[in-house]
User: Which sequence fits this backbone?
């Protein structure tokens, strides 16, 4: 609300307590229309572009990360496959290169193990030779496994059937996680043997831990039952079950989305490895992955908000400025029009008053002379000279003629002044003249008018007619405001700066504070529907400006109003100096 | 003192003439300009009291005509119209001595007439 208060245009609250033609000038509506249209036209494309850009960039970022993850999965899969194939091939070579009898030689087998270790690096832990009945006939390695019987084990059956077997990781007799690669050798006649090597999982661990996955990324192997084959950072240790669903089989690298135990979104890349019972999984947290996107996103949003704010500020400012200009122009136009209308009206009234006065003056003069003649004749004839009653009647006729003459003279004077130009003026006399017109109304309503005009107030040059209208309007206004039996004080003084200061102070209803700045606006009226046009004070203000004066109003609701008119005193007392 | 009253309102000049006579002033009257000018051919007057607004010829124009016939005569204008500015413009041209607004009291009128005649006499002397 505070923000609205500061940007609210000055004309926002206008329109209620105004004149009857205010609806023609609904500036609030013009302003709203301007703001909504220009705002919509400029903001809509901006927002649209930002939204489109936002989604496009989000997609770009996502697919970029997916691609990168897929590449890592695929490369790692190749390395693991190669590792397994290499070892299977080596063992295949050994069974073909050596006869069963030579493999039964412990020294020979020990040398082969040593050579394997030398050629293929780490991984080979031990080697064993198992005959077709499942008995381990030769063994080299750190454990004492000679004579072990494997005939009942599943893998043995598989080797006998398919010729090769790669086991998943298990603890076995030795209680250390390892895997086994077994290759079938021997003749076709049914007599076969198996070369069995235990491989440590260290090479896999090394391979996976070297992947550059960034912060919270994780890469590990599981078997096809979802049991971890290597240790992972966040999803458990070797031989533990992963807390994620087992991804379904596909022959290709695949990406999917999932959630971890605490509900964070994950990017999961996986690949079934054909050379062994393994599934390679690379898991990244979506939040972390999308961190660069988050920054870009913030930038985008900040850009949108800042530019939208600037656009709106400019639109609001411009709309307010332009509509205010229109309002001022409208008001000027209207008040000028009405001033002209008013002046014309006053001129017509003046002409009418003058002709009426003239027409009345002529018969009045006749009555005057006839009555005068009667008086003269009475005074000459003794019979009537003493007749007090007859003479009294004639006197009263003559007195009435004089009274009517005063009224017509005043009327003529008023009409004459309407057309008058700048002349020497006694402000006090002008006020008295105006009061001469209004005095009767005030008297009827028992309104006491106190006039305080200094005797020796110097005359100065001014437009008498305009002064007359100014005073007439203000006094009329004051009489409208006071109750019957109220007071109106009129004062006149010099302010030492070359101005005559005329004050009109009434004890009427006063003007509410919020209306005080608007009473000089055209069409501002609280008397709408009671004959008020809302133009009186506007015209008064215009007239005051025309005589280059100023008008000021102070008011307290319920206590009264005080109008002060400052009139410049030009060529003070010219006649006196001459 | 001899006075000529000119006004289109017969009732006015009629009564006024009689009142002036009662005050020892010889007053003739005319309601048309033609009549007024004719009167000047046979009579001599000290003062002419003219209505400013009359049909055909205005008081100011009439004054010019009358001045030709009686250069020594003084003039007082009587008007029902208060347009002093108009009158001043006209009277400056015509050189009228006095200007009175109807209705005017008889005493004021007589005083003005005597004043005009006295001034004129002074000027002449």
Assistant:
């Amino acid at each position: 609300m505070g923000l609205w208060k500061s940007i609210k245009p000055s004309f926002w609250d206008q329109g209620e307590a105004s004149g009857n033609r205010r609806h023609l000038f609904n500036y609030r509506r013009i302003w709203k229309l301007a703001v909504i249209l220009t705002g919509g036209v400029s903001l809509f494309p901006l927002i649209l572009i930002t939204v489109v850009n936002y989604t496009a960039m989000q997609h770009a970022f996502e697919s970029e990360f997916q691609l990168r993850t897929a590449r890592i999965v695929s490369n790692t899969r190749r390395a693991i496959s190669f590792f397994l194939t290499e070892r299977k091939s080596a063992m295949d070579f050994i069974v073909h290169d050596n006869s069963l009898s030579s493999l039964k030689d412990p020294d020979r087998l020990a040398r082969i193990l040593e050579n394997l270790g030398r050629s293929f690096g780490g991984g080979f832990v031990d080697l064993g030779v198992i005959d077709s009945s499942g008995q381990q006939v030769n063994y080299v390695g750190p454990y004492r496994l000679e004579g072990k019987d494997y005939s009942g084990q599943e893998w043995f059956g598989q080797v006998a059937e398919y010729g090769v077997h790669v086991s998943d990781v298990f603890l076995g007799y030795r209680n250390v996680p390892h895997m086994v690669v077994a290759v079938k050798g021997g003749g076709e006649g049914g007599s076969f043997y198996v070369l069995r090597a235990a491989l440590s999982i260290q090479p896999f661990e090394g391979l996976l831990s070297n992947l550059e996955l960034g912060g919270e990324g994780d890469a590990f192997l599981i078997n096809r039952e979802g049991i971890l084959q290597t240790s992972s950072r966040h999803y458990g240790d070797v031989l533990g079950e992963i807390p994620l669903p087992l991804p379904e089989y596909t022959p290709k690298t695949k990406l999917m989305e999932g959630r971890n135990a605490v509900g964070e979104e994950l990017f999961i890349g996986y690949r079934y490895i054909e050379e062994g019972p393994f599934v390679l999984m690379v898991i990244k947290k979506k939040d972390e992955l999308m961190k660069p996107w988050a920054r870009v996103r913030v930038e985008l949003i900040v850009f949108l908000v800042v530019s939208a704010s600037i656009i709106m500020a400019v639109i609001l400012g411009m709309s307010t400025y332009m509509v205010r200009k229109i309002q001022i122009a409208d008001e000027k136009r209207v008040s000028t029009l009405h001033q002209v209308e008013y002046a014309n009206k006053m001129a017509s009234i003046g002409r009418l008053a003058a002709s009426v006065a003239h027409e009345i003056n002529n018969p009045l003069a006749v009555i005057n002379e006839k009555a005068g003649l009667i008086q003269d004749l009475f005074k000459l004839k003794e019979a009537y000279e003493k007749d007090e009653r007859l003479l009294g009647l004639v006197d009263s006729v003559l007195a009435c003629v004089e009274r009517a003459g005063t009224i017509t003279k005043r009327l003529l004077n008023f009409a004459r002044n309407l057309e008058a130009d700048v002349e020497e003026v006694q402000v006090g006399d002008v006020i008295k003249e105006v009061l001469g017109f209004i005095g009767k109304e005030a008297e009827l309503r028992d309104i006491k008018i106190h006039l305080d005009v200094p005797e020796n107030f110097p005359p100065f040059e001014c437009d008498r007619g305009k002064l007359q209208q100014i005073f007439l309007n203000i006094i009329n206004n004051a009489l409208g405001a006071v109750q019957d039996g109220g007071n109106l004080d009129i004062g006149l003084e010099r302010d030492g700066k070359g101005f005559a200061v005329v004050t009109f102070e009434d004890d009427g209803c006063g003007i509410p504070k919020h209306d005080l700045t608007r009473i000089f606006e055209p069409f501002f009226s609280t008397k709408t529907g009671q004959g008020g046009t809302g133009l009186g004070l506007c015209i008064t203000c215009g007239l005051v400006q025309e005589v280059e004066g100023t008008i000021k109003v102070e008011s307290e609701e319920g206590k009264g109003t005080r109008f002060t008119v400052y009139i410049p005193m030009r060529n003070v007392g010219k006649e006196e100096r001459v | 003192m001899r006075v000529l009253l000119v006004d289109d309102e017969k009732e006015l000049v009629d009564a006024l003439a009689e009142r002036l006579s009662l005050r020892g002033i010889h007053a003739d009257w005319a309601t048309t300009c033609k009549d007024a000018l004719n009167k000047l051919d046979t009579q001599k007057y000290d003062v002419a009291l003219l209505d400013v607004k009359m049909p055909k010829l205005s008081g100011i124009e009439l004054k010019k005509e009358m001045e030709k016939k009686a250069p020594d005569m003084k003039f007082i204008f009587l008007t029902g119209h208060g347009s002093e500015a108009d009158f001043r413009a006209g009277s400056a041209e015509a050189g009228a001595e006095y200007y009175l607004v109807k209705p005017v009291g008889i005493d004021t009128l007589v005083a003005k007439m005597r004043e005009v005649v006295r001034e004129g006499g002074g000027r002449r002397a």
